[in-house]
Amino acid sequence: MPSISLDALLQGILGASSLLIGALVGVYWQPGRVFSAAIMAFGSGTLLSAIAFDITQPVYESSGFWPILTGFAMGGTLFTLVIKYIDDHGGFIRHPSASRRFLYQNRQEETSEVLNRLTHVEMLHNLSPSEVQAIIPLLKPLNVEPGTLLCQEGAPGDAMFVIVDGEAEIYKGEQFMALLGAGEMFGEMALLTGEERSATVIARTPMALYELDKMDFDAMLTRSPHLASGLSRILARRLRETTQNRAKLREESDEHWRQRVLDSVEVDFPLSEQQIQQLAKSSAPIAILVGTLIDNIPEALVIGLNAGIGHISSSFLMAVFISNFPEALSSSIGMKQAGTSAQRIITLWGGVVLLSGLIAMVGSALTTYANPWVVGATQSLAGGAILAMLSSTMMPEAYELGGGSVTFSTIAGFLVGFWMVTLSL
């Protein structure tokens, strides 16, 4: 028993040791995208081969199909739920794909919140979804009390306003002209014409508004000629003072427009410095450590189970070793860009290597006390988790970095893994 546990420990450390190598490379040298993609795709291919021939086939031969079905379903589900929880609590930065998902969800939530308040603003409906995406970050929320002077007749126009809630009165001199409510805007004419304010606007009730200052407004006009034409149409409609009731039709079109804008939310690739800083502020070192460990638990567990039953699989060890390298490489680059010190990165990955060895020992010990069905289900659970990791991180990232060229690296990895399995037969 002690010798088996020691073998499992050493094999677990050997399989995970490429994490430390990848971390060192990521800290001191950033390889090209094509190289990273090729390594990632090759590792994905070897792991796919290992899942098929080192996990699925032996379990089927010893315990049948049901442990495979049960284990893969549980492993994939458990891995997905745990990783989602960890990513939501700050561990997302260890994978570029998880980082982009975080940015995408964050931006979509922010956009949805603003759109919920501005759905009935006609000006925005004249813009394309991408233009709405560009203007939303420029809108500054503003809350004012009744009696607040928002625009002064004769003063320079330095901003326009969109009313979210409340009412405002428009005066020309001493004469009351109109009452503005939610969904309407004011102050845009002075920005369009460059002339002084043509009227005074005073808050009648407590108001929630969005403000767009002149500098941002001018920048938007340059980028979006639709904005100027849309504002012109609104001004013309005000002069006509139309009273036709189009509430129901407008409600339906508002919801359709809102969904189109949300569907168009994108994140720039690759991650910009500003986005990296945003990620750094939102990430949590403990969550990164736990998430990284969770990524490697299934592989270490299979290594231990193989050692416990006396099956030393060189093909699976090779697959784990190769696949771990690009994971640590990409994670370390992201952590370095986010401001994590080199010493801290290396210490983190070194700790994960040791913990992987200990988990392999646990897997080895399990074979002593569990029946073959439980061992088979545990191996399948780990296989399902590994497959979930491949489909959610390594393979998408490899394709994004290398495009169609990763096809051949993945095939090569699979065939090399299969060839090593045949050598051990």
Structure, described:
The protein has helices at residues 2-28, 33-63, 66-91, 96-118, 122-125, 129-135, 188-193, 214-223, 225-240, 247-263, 273-282, 285-308, 314-337, 342-369, 372-402, 406-423, and strands at 140-144, 149-151, 159-165, 168-172, 175-180, 185-186, 200-203, 207-213. It has 16 helices and eight strands. The strands form two sheets. It has a four-stranded antiparallel β-sheet. It has two domains: 2-97 and 271-423, no CATH class; 106-263, Jelly Rolls, CATH 2.60.120.10. α8 (214-223) crosses α9 (225-240). It is 71% helix and 9% strand. A hairpin with a 2-residue loop joins β4 (168-172) and β5. It is an alpha+beta fold and 425 residues long.
Tag the structure with descriptive keywords.
single chain, 425 residues, alpha+beta, Jelly Rolls, 2 domains, 4-stranded antiparallel sheet, 16 helices, 8 strands, 71% helix
The order of strands across the largest sheet is 1-8-3-6
Radius of gyration: 30 Å
Query: Roughly how much helix do the residues carry, as a percent range?
Result: over 70%
Termini separation comes to: 26 Å
Task: Extract low-pLDDT stretches.
Answer: 239-252, 265-273
Tell me the number of structural domains.
2
- Number of DSSP E strands: 8
Mean pLDDT: 77
- Give the strand content: 5-15%
Q: Total number of helical segments?
A: 16
Give the CA-based shape: elongated
Report the major sheet: 4 strands, antiparallel
What order do the SSEs take from the amino end to the carboxyl end, as H and E? Answer: HHHHHHEEEEEEHEEHHHHHHHHH
Structural category: alpha+beta
